Amino acid sequence: MTFFDKVLEHEQFDLQQFWSTVTDEMVIKSLNKQSLSDKDFLILLAPKGAGYLENMAQKAHKLTIQNFGKVIFLYTPMYLSNYCVNRCAYCGFNVENKFLRKTLTLEEVEMEAQVISETGLKHILVLTGESRTHANLQYLLECGQILKKYFTSITIEIYPMETEEYKELVKAGVDSITIYQETYNRTRYDAVHLSGPKKDYGFRLEAAERAGNAGMRSINIGALLGLSDWRADAFLTGLHAKYLQDNFPGVEIGISLPRLRPHKGSFQPVSISEDRDLVQTMLAFRLFLPRVGITISTRESAQFRDNLMKLGVTKMSAGSSTEVGGHSQDNKSDGQFEISDNRSVAEVRAAILNKGYQPVLKDWQYL
Amino acid sequence: MEDILKIGGKELSNRLFLGTGKFPSKNIIPQVIKSSETQVVTVAVRRVDLNGEQENILNYISKDCILMPNTSGARNAEEAVRIAQIARAAGCGNWIKIEVINDNKYLLPDNYETIKATEILAKKGFIVLPYVSPDLMVAKALVDAGAAAVMPLGAPIGSNRGLQTKELIRILIAEIDLPIIVDAGIGKPSQAAEAMEMGADAVLVNTAIATAEDAVKMAEAFNLAVKAGRLAYLAGPGAEQLYGEASSPLTDFLR
User: Fold this and answer.
1) Would the CB atoms of B24 and A356 count as touching at under 8 Å?
2) Which pTM value belongs to this model?
3) Catalytic positions of B, written as ranges
4) Nearest residue of A to residue B85 by CA position?
5) From residue A105, how far is each of A79, A109, A125, A132 by CA, in Å?
6) How far is the C-alpha of A317 from the C-alpha of A124, rounded, in Å?
7) What's domain B12-254's superfamily in CATH?
8) What angle in degrees, to the nearest 10, is found between the helix axes of B77-89 and B111-123?
């Protein structure tokens, strides 16, 4: 049994109908429980739950401090390649989009690493589009060798791989993986992934489990909120995280909450997750899964991110660029999506301290 | 006579050990060390950043303190051993708190892997302080493996739930000749005092101090509580009894 079976099970259940029956009493009861069931989590995501954001926030704040302390972990993304064979309706790297495509040479990877490491960051997230021609396993292993000299933790956010490939990457020093399902709704998934290997819903869904079996230390998942009904995707994301936590107790599980933002080709979200909605989602995650890491990227604005710090966030990106070569080159390519929080690493660190939190730049040691 | 705790050839007059994760800023740590009067400070090797002056937590810890690096993040004995070696190579001394956790939900230690790591590291000359779930047989195995102390948890890390494992810790105190240091779960000074009163040799506190609104003041409160508990233990509290003296004794006829 994999999480795919869980998804099939939940397709039989009418979430919208259930949410319409949720009462204030149900929300109050669920939010005050010490340990929340799947159903409690579902109740907190209901429209009725929006009336209890302050109560949820107070509890989420306490739980986060108790479990993680007054700290926020920092990282930055580094795009290795924007070549992509997929046609995803919502993505700037869509194979049909005409713009400057680029894969960093190993020398360029080293230059990027140098520039980033000068900010003091020790955790790097490396990304590629899906193209085994332009960024194959061998290339990634070689990049890993370079990055290890500058960073103490390497996370990959790339196309889904086989277990054996993940094992190779772990051996080379990659310790974490980020992989978003984008949407858990299979019909919608099929509709927005127009062509390319990414059309295979199951292979992508089970990548997290393969990474766990391969020995990754941390696995970060998420849905691109807005691609489909955000409440339903938030619910399935939470269940997915719980499934991974139960089945891979030695792995640190994290959730990201990316929201669909404007980009080239102007793909529009079908369900808009407003700020209040994103907060409700995050609080429900924290109450349901007190030990899970929660990441907020620079897709969100500086002001909003600062306000989210006390609501359950444990990890933030800083000094981000979604362009290949974006940290060190003048002649960089087009980005995958627009950054809203353009502050430097030093500015984000100062903002975190200002909120009464310690910015942590290093939380792992390559062994 | 001064009340001294001996561990690994060092003599300690203060019995509050301090954890350094979870603080709102590194700048507060020197003040916390001062107000707690602690002599032993633990740091996660995974968090130690030797390159950055401002980022290096070691720069915030008084040279008078004994540094006790911990193996947080280790999922098995092999990883714990590697982390200990990294700490020693980085100049963190030869004390090591072994923390092997392969359960991110409850953060409970893996006793079996901890015993293995203790044996390997003690042989390599480390002063090994293993963090475990309290269990008499495990503690005996740790004695045989060469541990310098045993650090049983009072409740899961960060839970602030106090001495949930009190009866099991009581047995360790009675049966094990090594220092018993209650580590994890202590959420209030009164709980630290309770552990000391029952005969624990020391307590280690992190979350309860680091996440207090005024960490410096809370550190002072813990220092006083640990001292009070220790003093009470040394004073030998009177025996507890459930009832007052009966006014009509039942065994009076035996006189």
Assistant:
1) yes
2) 0.90
3) 97
4) A367
5) 12, 6, 17, 15
6) 10
7) Aldolase class I (3.20.20.70)
8) 40
Please give the Cα distance from A250 to B101 (Å, whole number). 7
User: CA-based Rg of chain A, rounded to a whole angstrom?
Assistant: 20
User: In this predicted complex, what is the ipTM?
Assistant: 0.83
Please name the residue that has the structure tokens 């493996």.
B145
Nearest to B47 among A68, A253, A360 (CB): A360
Contact, B41 vs B12, CB < 8 A?
A: no
Which tokens sit at A224? 């691109």
Inspect the interface and report whether the beta carbons of B49 and A361 lie closer than 8 Å: yes
Residue B253 has pLDDT above 90, yes or no: no
Q: How far apart are CA B87 and CA B121, in angstroms?
A: 12
Tokens 């005996």, located at residue: B140
Class of domain A53-360: alpha beta
- Report pLDDT digits (tens) over A37-83: 999 999 999 999 999 999 999 999 999 999 999 999 999 999 999 99
Q: Where are the alpha helices (DSSP H) in chain B?
A: 29-36, 77-89, 111-123, 136-145, 166-175, 189-197, 207-210, 215-235
DSSP string, A106-126: HHHHHHHHHHHHTTT--EEEE
- For chain B, what are the domain ranges? 12-254
In sequence order, which residues have a C-beta less than 8 Å from that of residue B19 and are 6 or more positions away?
Answer: B41, B42, B204, B205, B206, B207, B209, B210
* β pairing state of B181-183 and B202-205: parallel
Percent of chain B predicted with pLDDT > 90: 71
B122 closest CA partner among B101, B94, B150, B99: B94
Question: Pick from A20, A57, A47, A54: which is nearest to A230 by CA?
Answer: A47
Q: What is the dihedral of CA B128, B132, B135, B141, to 10 degrees?
A: -30
For A150, name the nearest residue in chain B, comparing CA atoms only.
Answer: B51
Q: Do A358 and B45 touch (CB under 8 A)?
A: no
